[in-house]
Amino acid sequence: MVDKSGRLRLPKYWPILYVVYRLRRVYNSFDLQKYLYLAKVDGNAPIEYVFVDDYCGPRCASIKQDAISLGVRGYLKVSFENRWVFEITEEGARVAKELLNSLPVEVQNAFDHILEEYSSLPVVKLRDYVYDAHQYPGVKPRPRAETEYEELKKQIKSEINLLLHDFSGIESNANTLFLLGSLDYCMLVLKRENLAETFQKDNLITLIDGYVKKVMLLRELLGNNPELVGEICLNDLKEDFELIQEASEEYKVLPALYEEGIDLSVFVDVEE
Amino acid sequence: MDVVSRKKKIIIYDANSIIYYCFLHEEKIKGRTVTIRVMEFTNKIQNLTEQFIKSGFEIVTISGVMNEIYNKGIAKIVEEFCDDYRTKDLIGLPDRMRISDRIKLRLARKTEEKIKRLQNKTWFTVVEYEPADKDIERVKSFYESLSGTPKMIEHMKKKRTREPYPSDVDMSLLIYSKESKAPIVTNDSDLIDFKYELESQGLCFGIIVDP
Fold first, then answer.
1. Closest CA to A173 of B62, B77, B115, B23
2. What is the pLDDT of residue B1?
3. How does strand B10-13 pair with strand B58-62?
4. Is residue A224 part of a domain?
């Protein structure tokens, strides 16, 4: 695509291709979203994507969709291994190099600096940085009273119980097992959570609340046919659940469910 | 019948054979290491597989079986395993407690990962296979022809099913067995209850009952 002055016009997806080209591989869509957000806000890169607040931090749903479309075009190899994985292909690298010619050097430098600084951060730390420290610099989350947290947790637990009840009545399949298991894990995290650090407490509860709301929406959409859940692709929920596990582990509340070598008894709740 | 295909040296596994083979995990529980496996099946299918591999056989399945495994098969086996009263003993849970959904999900995920690793083995192959409609109809007709016989009545009662014929994937496996001249390793009652009839009517190459 060429503009009136004869220069190559950058397609909307350019920053996605740029990030994956530079890093070769990006392991989940959260990271991709956050790099683009930081490049836009900090690096003043000409990025068209519009970010909105989400429980996982600033987010633009079309970034992941466009990345998947780049997979269809053959520019990226897109796969899902409990989270989205985007890898550059030969064709993608060729197109990215072409795009680089139209990208001002200062934008490239700023973008590269952001990738250098943040690409080694674990996903929870990156999320915490973008969501709290960066997006609202110097503004600590409004401290809630302990009773307020307890009320919120009580409400989420009751929502989880409703969902557990609904999905446990369906013939078992991979999706029902995932939904029941992930909600059950969230329930245990809420029971065990006793974080003194407000920032962490707020983050963890927000993540779980957002996840449960997404599952509730799914349940609502299924209406009178909850058994159709077996036919639905739950990759986005799976990726969200990974983030909850990572946050729970990072804040030392409960190990990630899939972690190797842990004692299974940590997942046993004697009150059940 | 010879239990293995001499020409191509391949053996066909159904969904359960693959899941049981991979349902073998070590977990730490209250400090001790426990081996998680399906008591009756895992060891036997492990030994059988080892023998096949040593004898130079390639283990093959069809893509429909893999889809069935990931969509429903693993979940079904994990549920059955966790409903077994011996599992609570193994995990050290008191009788009054049920095995939680989060532990079930962990076991399912570990099994799924093992199956994915199995797909990278040189002796294991998944083939894209879609049988012709007429072949499916032939197998279906065979099962329907048994409707009303004491054997089929008993079988349907045991399986709590209204249809006399098995799933499309099972019928595809029978046809693939016939075409590739290789036997199927299975413990599926839809196949093993009619092993003699299926083999004698040439609807499959052979059925190896596992265990």
1. B77
2. 40
3. parallel
4. yes
CB contact (8 A) between residue A257 and residue B98: no
Domain that holds residue A165: 146-267
How far is A204 from A190, CA to CA, in rounded Å?
9
* ipTM of the prediction: 0.89
Q: Decide if A79 is inside a domain.
A: yes
User: Given pLDDT bands bounded at 50, 70 and 90, which one contains residue A202?
Assistant: confident
Structure tokens at B55: 């004898």
Cβ-based neighbours of B66, under 8 Å, separated by 6 or more = B119, B126
pLDDT at A162 > cutoff 80: yes
Span A64-77, pLDDT tens digits: 999 999 999 999 99
Number of separate domains in chain A = 2
Mutate to test the interface with A, among B26, B106, B116 (most CBs of A within 10 A): B106
Boundary residue ending a domain (A102, A134, A166): A134
Distance from CA of A75 to the nearest CA of B (A): 25
| Nearest Cβ partner for B72 among A173, A180, A272 | A173
pLDDT of residue A3 exceeding 60? no
